[in-house]
Amino acid sequence: MSDRELQLAELLIETLKTEWNPAAYSDTYREELLKRIGAKTPVERAEERAAVSPGARAEELMNALKASVDAAKKKQKKRPSRKRTA
Asked: Can you spell out the DSSP letters for 13-48?
């Protein structure tokens, strides 16, 4: 970069530079998320949790555990066995 280009870049930065004002910005994602969370009443949230029976949760957990064990067994079968020599 030439000296002239550097001077022009510095001039441009100085011209566009403003004081940082965080109050001028808002976190719209967070605001929307909090609004959606707050939209549900405690009763609605309790009803959602109650809709899934404990038995269904246990069954879901057991299925996930079985799938994990099966995947580990398949992975172990793919590995070549190491024979120890004495």
From this structure: HHHH-----GGG---HHHHHHHHHHHHS-HHHHHHH
Residue 1 has pLDDT above 60, yes or no: yes
Residue 9: band (very low, low, confident or very high) from pLDDT cuts 50, 70, 90:
very high
Six-digit token string for 72? 């580990």
Q: Within 13 A of 48's CA, how many CA atoms are on the CB side? A: 6
| pTM of the predicted model as reported, rounded to 2 decimal places | 0.33
Residue spans of the domains in the chain: they are 24-68
Which helix (DSSP H) or strand (DSSP E) does residue 70 occupy?
helix 54-78
Please state, in angstroms and rounded to a whole number, the distance separating the CA atoms of residues 57 and 61: 6
Using the structure block, give the residue that is written with the tokens 């190491």.
82
